[in-house]
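Section 3.1: Structural characterization of target chains.
Under the original work plan, the team committed to producing a structural model for every single-chain target entering the pipeline before any wet-lab resources were allocated. The record below documents one such target. The sequence was received from the expression subgroup and is listed exactly as submitted; it comprises 281 residues.
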Amino acid sequence: MTIAKYWNKFTRRRIWVRNLVQIFFFALIALISVNHTLAESGKGIPFLSSASLHALCPFGGVVTIYQYAVSGTFVQKIHESAFILMIVGFILAILFGPVFCGWICPFGSIQEWFGRLGKKIFKRRYNRFIPAKFDRWLRYLRYLVLAWIVYMTAASGSLVFAEFDPYFTLFNLWSSEIAIGGLIILVVTLAGSLFVERPWCKYACPYGAVLGVSNLFRIFRIRRVAGTCKLDGACDIYCPMNIKVSDKTIVRDHQCISCLECTSEARCPAAGTVDFVAGAK
């Protein structure tokens, strides 16, 4: 059995499988973050890691690449583990696309969970508040955010994004490490999730911008078979990133997060029409 077929079989009930994976990583990061705070006062849980979030974030590896290449050292607060996680993230992205975004990232998950409330409140209006002509261009803002962060970090040698990072703020609400900038962005993002699905992921996430490029050359791709497509739009409706899957043969959109919600095993009513396959062209 090929890897793609095994993956499709494993995720045949992928809606709940993905939910479980998301809950697991959200709970894990939350516990480690709490334990980091407890460990500082000598009350940490022995069997649980007490690492800081900076050591667990793969984007930390991205922003320290320049300094590591120039001096062989890491940006302040960034640990070797972040560099290793960055490499793992890149390998996963080359193979399967941005699965980190769609399956693992706790901040992406909490936006989805807030979005479910938004869907109940606004129903069909949900995710349609921003006109498509503006939405299309707003999605490139995250590349500007990425460029600014990489430049400022390289120029200053410090982790400037920590002051604005909503992910770091979310898991440090009980500590004194949070900054007002990060808190404001966190509140705006979660509030925005009631109107737009995954607003941070779509418009501002610098790590999502990095991983999104992998959709152009990833090995395992999402493919739509036009001959069996019923064109009912289910794949478009359920895509959290608003990608119009129904008019594509291969999904190469830079915003795809490999959540696989559009596939036949999850949402598409026509068997074998939207699949996760290797080497598709």
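Residues 3-215 form one domain.
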